[in-house]
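Worked example (supplementary).
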Amino acid sequence: MSRSKIILIAILLTGSLTTAFAISFLSEVSVVVAQNNNNVFSKEEEKTTTKETIVTGGHGTGYNTVSTTGDVLDSINADERTDLTIDPMKYLREFNYGKVSTTDNGIRLHEFTIIAQDKNLEVSPGVFMDAWTFNGTIPGPTIRATEGDLVKINFINNGSKPHTMHFHGIHQSQMDGVFEIIAPGGSFTYEFTAEPFGLFLYHCHMQPLEEHISKGLYGVYIVDPKTPRPPADEMVMVMNGYDNDFDTENNFYTVNGIPNYYMHHPIQIEKDKLIRVYLVNILEFDQINNFHLHANLFHLYRTGTSLTPNEYTDMITFSQGERAILELSYKYPGPYMFHAHKTEFAEKGWTGLFLVKEDQSEPDVTAFKKGENAVYPPEIGNNTFTTQTKTKDSQSAAVVSYGEASQGGS
Amino acid sequence: MESDENRIDRNNRKTSRKKMIVIALIPLIVLSGMLVFLLGPGMSILNIGIPLPEITIEKIEFQNDKIVAFIRNTGPEGVEVAQADINDRMIPAAIEPSKTLSRLAEAKVIVPFSWIAGVPYEVGITSSDGTRFSKSVEAAALAPTPNVQQASYFALIGIYVGVIPVLIGLLWFPFIKRLGMNKYKFFLSLTAGLLVFLGIDALIESNGIVAENIAGAFNGQVLIVMITIITFLVLLYTSEKLVDRAIMKSDANSSKSNLVTYHSSSSSSSSTTKDPQKQQQQQQQQQQQLAKPFAIAMMIAIGIGLHNFGEGLAIGAAVLLGEVALSTFLIVGFTLHNTTEGLAIVAPMAKSGGKVTIQKLIVMGLIAGVPTIIGAWIGGFLYSPIAAIIFLSIGAGAIFQVVFSITSWMSSNASEPRKALLSTPMIAGFTVGMIIMYGTSLLIPS
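After joint prediction of all chains, the assembly is encoded as:
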């Protein structure tokens, strides 16, 4: 009996082994079948998914897309936002000279009112942070005067914590914004002569300094030389970051307050026209930050304290608080990137585009927003599946173009 | 008079029942009143502290040119998902069905991304308040898609890992059958040792899943213990019932056959009634001895089947989540490990003296082995960590119940139960069983 049982079990075992082999053989066959079927499947899907929203990965040309029936988590496009930290387009070319008058001594006086206030701001699409601001924006207003002018700032602290305003430049100790602490509800008047000419910044100098700066209390202060620099299309660029989860590491990096903003809203400039960029790095937590210009070089005036350029380059690296004036002009029309060449920062929002125009007529900014232009947004397939088949053919090309877009023409 | 008393009694009972219901409801009414009061307006005084959002990423799948994360809001309140990232770099993504998640709601985040196989990735989800939640995957691997090819691949793994080893183990039946009593006891307790190891293994495995994939909101560890205990109790109860029914059936059969003699003897003289009673007792004991090992073997087969189901789930999920590279070595490890399970099934039946048919053995072998295939399918195609721990805990409960049955069966057969359990072959067998399991488990890289 037991012998026959052994034989039977042995038969069963060989049976299951043969089944196993048969299945492995069949699965080899079915690979081919499945591959053939996939094409049919994707075609069927094409018809059903055309009405869905399309999400494009990355910010470069030719990156793969997915279609969805749900919501889009667009970390890059800031168009539908509510509580922006700032309007980067307005901030870019907005220079505040204050209420200008002349003193009895014949000196020009610039009077400003700056109010520190707490504000919950959208620092990146959909992401809100409890921020501290000068006049409700990050960065605060750009203050500008000419060398020798008198600057008077009526500072009011409407925030919940004590703050100060510390200006870089030459001034008296009591106007340095370090020892006179302005309590919540308090106010203080800073008064000093604008000197020397150059590019400076201001920020709160309360302890803990890291917290007061990373939460948004900073801005740009420009002192023009008595003999003005040559006329140019002038703009301010402040490089900053946001630590919205408060772990002393930045989650987002920006130029002028909103991650990737100028990717969707390119800064329009004219071909051959002199562009002057007042570039300031206030980035907290990270050791360095930098600026890289595509397809061009710029003349660099460190701290803006000289009228002779220090360098002719396409790349400048700053530590926190460093700044420089950049002068450039574009020889050819078209869109050109500028971004941090610390690629991590670039991929966390510190990127932008110059759109160099032949003349004022074309192309329009909206072309970039709606994706009619070849540069942004990338090619949009009809749906996931067509895009997938497309990227299969052009995958290497897609990856390369993404790399170029984000890392620059290095 | 009597009927009146009865009526009064009944009335008393009726009123007391009504009373009972009211009494039982009173605390519930007070409780709901309190809830209304607490949840009503003006009770903000009790809202101490800031409720922190919590999003758990339960599963990450790598599909063609996209990474898909399955997330759940495990925080105390509703949450709005703001952004997704890969390796902490901003990437636009899609979220289905919606970026607004109520408490415990799920969503699928689809990130278009040209990932590279074998490379580690971290997926991050940032909520609207700026908090970032992340989960990393050791090595990206293409998620299996439910098609004929993948299904047959998993079936193949299941057959190698589950079915064949168990059937090989069954081949020990004639060997065990011919063993002397002491050696038999050794092997029986060896089985118990194997099973205890498997049970503990299942508990640790499910605890690992809880730690890695399940949010605190689900009380995962308590769930494991609860399911294990409930399974243990339910199986204990049902197996006792099964044994009882088996005895009853065989009793009925035997009494039918003995009907004539039984009746005649009882009717003929009252003096001989002792004899048939003794006879009956003897018969019952015999039946019990036969039925119990079968029931135990069946329970072992079911318990091991559940365990193998869990094992299948783990294998399928590992393939899905890209956590393991399935190699021939891994399959060999599982095969060696699971061969001992066949031994566990045949051991209690070998000495029962009853007829053990091939069909019964094969059925038991399949009950124990085939769930591996089903587990691999489920694990590979629709993995859910919650389902995984539920099945693993059921398996653990089943296994502990089996061990309990084996030991109580062995001790009930002996005149001195305690001595029988603590005899040299028993202790040695149990120890060797655990060591064998540990040894073969080393062949499976985890």
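Two points are worth noting when inspecting this output. The two ends of chain A are 81 Å apart (CA to CA). Chain A has a mean pLDDT of 79.
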